[in-house]
Design a protein that fits this description.
Blueprint lengths: L12 E7 L3 H5 L1 H10 L4 E6 L7 H6 L4 E7 L2 E7 L2 E5 L14 E4 L21 H5 L7 H14 L5 E5 L6 H16 L3 H8 E2 L3 E4 L7 H11 L7 E3 L4 E5 L15 E3 L2 H25 L5 H6 L1 H15 L10 H12 L8 H5 L2 H18 L5 H13 L17 H11 L3 H9 L6 H5 L1 H15 L3 H17 L1
Parallel strand pairs: 1-2, 1-6, 2-5, 3-10, 6-7, 7-8, 11-12
Antiparallel strand pairs: 3-4, 9-11
Helix pairs in contact: 5-6, 9-11, 9-12, 9-14, 9-15, 11-12, 11-20, 14-15, 15-19, 16-17, 17-19
Bound molecules: D-mannonic acid.
Length: 475
């Protein structure tokens, strides 16, 4: 079958680029570009993927068009997407000409920034190979620097690079690591960048689990043909971007993207409520025997636990314009309860050392600083302490991976005999905010929950969480 688009794909132009064409990008940003094309715009996207799987062949095989199936308990909608004009893998990407591109977005995951987690500092050890041969880069940071250097040498104009990953101040982080890398790789680039590159911060949101055989089968029934690029996602979507651009850009505000000068409040709300709850369920849910976020979010004990957790996370937030934190929290829980979205907890638990600092660590530190207890956050970090470095494959066939797994698992082995020592050793890691590293009461609360969860079965762990909820109600 041929996909039917309501616009002429041949009339689109490659003005935009995206680095990291995973399931998320295909289900999220591409939908906005496609909406623009449906409304008569001509912005198409050049996709670049530096890491496997190689998708260029699949993209070519189906003429560049694929489907997005959105589902929840109320029904399903399948739509074709035609705005991903080109797709380049690591082999062809370094030779790509970015001359016509004025706006580029990135979803390269939290660890893709080659930084020290919890900071905006480049970790030079992660770019050693790229710095040795900066014209054949392998990392996203090395790749962007090489594209900018070629742009500078060719006298081409300014460009906007918008990070869309779940890291705090993602535009600031991208600008900082890229400028540092550029200064080491190309003598004149960082000065040129200061005049010619804008790094808006942005917040993107849609739950898009990695595709499984089951979701691929549902997608293919819905779109009526084989589709190796298609994705299944929840219906909810949001994109908020800071009003900071260096060059021409798509009129995203015409298709529901919020362009604002107050990005931080949206970003914190999303990281701490939606992502915070996902990560909390990744740790506590696995301890209670769940494999996916739907199972955890519909477990009555864990659903009830979300209420005090979200309330304490909300206490650290400034409500963004047009939002309501209570409704946002309730909606977040409902989104995780979507029966059609099978999001393995092991997928969410992956790279926790790059996710938990902003999702759990920062709000916990802020609560402690104002004299509150942060007990729900200590429970999550206790769950992390007990499972970090496990790499078990029993949850939905997905393995947990984390760049710090080996070091953290070694700490776990060394301090496994004492909950206090383990809590102190893990909380002393530089990924956490200062306050968390030094607060004896938080370490004691974390140790308490490590003990409570350690020698227990999923059922008794649930019972301990239930007890915690009862005590809170009676307090
Ligand atoms: C998830 C996110 O795996 C994870 O880290 O928490 O991918 C989450 O589903 C998205 O941020 C939702 O927008």
């Amino acid at each position: 079958m041929m996909w039917e688009l309501s616009y002429n794909r041949a009339a689109l132009r490659s003005h935009a680029a995206h680095l990291g064409v995973g399931a998320f990008h295909r289900a999220h940003q591409q939908g906005y570009y496609d909406d623009l094309a449906c409304a008569g715009g001509d912005w198409g996207v050049v996709g670049v993927n530096l890491t496997p799987p190689d998708l260029a062949e699949r993209h070519a095989a189906q003429g560049g068009v694929y489907s997005v199936l959105t589902e929840d308990g109320d029904g399903a909608t399948c739509r074709p997407i035609g705005t991903l004009l080109e797709l380049h893998d690591a082999a062809s990407a370094p030779g790509l000409d970015w001359a016509g591109i004025s706006f580029a977005t990135l979803t390269i995951t939290e660890k893709g920034y080659c930084h020290h987690s919890g900071t905006t500092e480049l970790d030079p050890d992660k770019v050693v190979a790229d710095l040795a041969t900066p014209e054949t880069p392998r990392t996203a940071i090395g790749y962007l620097a090489w594209m900018l250097e070629r742009r500078r040498r060719a006298g081409q104009g300014p460009i906007t690079l918008a990070s869309c990953d779940n890291v705090p101040d993602n535009g600031v982080l991208l600008g900082a690591v890229l400028t540092d890398y550029a200064a080491r790789a190309f003598p004149e680039l960082s000065r040129w960048m200061a005049q010619n590159v804008a790094f808006p911060t942005s917040m993107v949101d849609r739950i898009v689990p990695a595709m499984s055989d089951a979701s691929r089968a549902r997608l293919e029934v819905a779109c009526g043909c084989a589709d190796t690029l298609g994705v299944v996602a929840e219906p909810f979507r949001q994109w908020v971007i800071e009003d900071r651009f260096a060059a021409s850009r798509p009129a995203l505000e015409h298709v529901g993207v919020q362009v604002t000068s107050d990005l931080a409040s949206y970003e914190h709300m999303k990281h701490r409520l939606l992502n915070g709850l996902q990560s909390a369920y990744a740790e506590l849910g696995r301890l209670c025997g769940h494999e996916g976020s739907h199972g955890a979010a519909t477990d009555p004990v864990l659903a009830a636990w979300a209420v005090p957790f979200l309330a304490s996370q909300s206490d650290t937030l400034t409500c963004p314009e047009g939002e309501d934190l209570e409704i946002y929290g309730r909606t977040s829980l409902r989104r995780l309860q979507n029966p059609t979205i099978h999001h393995p907890l092991n997928q969410i638990a992956s790279d926790a050392s790059f996710k938990l600092p902003q999702r759990i660590g920062a709000p916990a530190a802020e609560l402690l600083a104002r004299g509150a207890r942060a007990e729900a956050q200590a429970m999550v970090l206790a769950g992390w302490a007990l499972q970090v470095g496990d790499g078990q494959v029993d949850c939905g066939g997905v393995t947990v991976s984390d760049p710090m797994a080996t070091d953290l698992a070694a700490l776990r082995t060394r301090h496994g005999g004492s909950a206090e020592d383990l809590a102190r050793a893990l909380l002393a890691q530089p990924i956490w905010p200062e306050r968390l590293r030094t607060d004896p009461d938080f370490a004691a609360a974390t140790a308490h929950w490590i003990r409570a969860f350690a020698a227990a079965t999923p059922a008794t762990r649930r019972a301990r969480i239930e007890e915690f909820l009862r005590e809170r109600m009676n307090a």
